[in-house]
Amino acid sequence: MPLPTTLKLLKDHSRQEILFGLARIPSSSRLFLGASDGKVYDVDVLAEKPEWKALEGHSSYVTGVALANGNQTLISGGYDGKLIWRKVESGEVIRTIEAAHSKWIRKVLSSPDGKRVVSIGDDMVCRVWDAESGDKLHELKGHEEKTPNHFPSMLYAACISADNRLLATGDKVGHVVIWDLAAGSRLATLEVPGLYTWDPKQRIHSIGGIRSLAFSPDGQKLAIGGIGHIGNIDHLDGPARVELFAWEKSEKLHEFLGDGKGLVASLAFGPDGKWLVGAGGDNGGLVQIYDLEAKKVARSEKAPMHIHALALVENAETLFACGHNKVAVFELKA
Description:
By secondary structure, the chain is mainly beta. It has no helices and 28 strands. Strand 7 and strand 8 form a beta hairpin. The radius of gyration is 18 Å and the shape is globular.
């Protein structure tokens, strides 16, 4: 699909929960949503009367969900540090790893071939698991536990390339590591300090960080999302910011600063690699489309909620998003 020029809200569903994580069964509108009540919800959001099936097992926020093993297995992770494997069709728990991370799990994702599962947490470790057996394959340590000002750091973001070869992880202070997923070896690092704000005077604290990562379809570019400089760090009152890198050369190709404010919490490339969609927000929601050839924010629209995660369908004509008290479906048209 070429660059979308219109973005239309098709449908949304209000919920009591905050919805943090999203995984979608391919070629369908069936979603698995990680929620603030410790549950994962299984729902077809485009059904005439959606039924929200609750899957229990976590004791805190469920911040990551992923599908693996030919979409037969669902893996979820949360602030309780736990990873849970389930059968997709029955919801039956296959295995539980009680202490997969010693601090909050921020994200869970699977490789496109469904053979690997990646989890990241505020213990600043990225762990790679065999999706079928649950065996831990790699423990990747490339991020400092403390910020330069001696506060605890966070490991917010990760992504895997379409060819299953590359893994990227990004932390609060703007440090990115690109890994060889199979070997567990470090390939490159990037520094993106423009996504991190330190207030040394009033609040003596920091905000921001890398909140989203996405490889281009050919794996040559890495998009990095978050928020630009913030004047008052008690609020997300800064410009939504995305930076694009040719990661092998450590070359920044462009930075996108549009009119929208807030975090860019999730990113996805269009199928041709010529455009990018990002979503997030501050108190409200935001969806932006980035034209990589023209090097500009082509579209910036308000969303009905602050968005935490998105999924772009195969032909890029539909976008599913979840966040604060809502799940929404958007139509994209060229």
